C-alpha cells in the first residue's frame, strides 16, 4: 500500500533543501521511497510517496540533520 507523508521542515537556504531531499530519498535504503518533492509557498514541506516508509523514523532523521521537522499528515493510498 502506498502512502503519502508530508513533513514540515525548517529550511533556511538551498543547501538545507538539498540536504532534506537527500535524507528523505535514502531514508529507507533501496526500497520504499518512490518520490520526494518540495511543496508549499516557501518550499518548506517535504512530500514523500512510497511503500513501507516509517514516517516517525524519517522525521527523526530530518530533525537531527536540519534541526526542525514535524509530521503534518500521513495518508494511505490504494493502488489502482
Could you explain how this protein is built, in words?
There is one protein chain. With 80 residues, the chain is of the alpha+beta class. It has helices at residues 14-25, 55-66; strands spanning 2-9, 33-39, 45-51, 69-77. A hairpin with a 5-residue loop joins strand 2 (33-39) and strand 3. Helix 1 packs antiparallel against helix 2. It is globular, with a radius of gyration of 12 Å. The termini are close together. The mean pLDDT is 88.
Which features would summarize this protein structure in a list?
80 residues; alpha+beta; Alpha-Beta Plaits; 4-stranded antiparallel sheet; 30% helix; 39% strand; metal ion binding; HIPP47/16; HMA domain-containing protein; HMA_dom
What Rg, in angstroms, do the CA atoms define? 12 Å
Measured as a percent range, the helix fraction is 25-40%
Largest sheet: 4 strands, antiparallel
- The second-level CATH architecture is 2-Layer Sandwich
CATH fold call: Alpha-Beta Plaits
- Provide the residue-averaged pLDDT: 88
Which class best fits the helix and strand makeup? alpha+beta
How many structural domains are formed by the residues? 1
CATH class: Alpha Beta
Distance between the termini: 10 Å
Shape: globular
What is the number of strand segments?
4
Could you state the order of secondary-structure elements as H and E?
Answer: EHEEHE
Q: DSSP helix count? A: 2
Q: Any low-confidence stretches, pLDDT <50, length ≥5?
A: none
In percent, how much strand structure appears in the residues?
35-45%
Largest beta sheet: strand ordering: 2-3-1-4
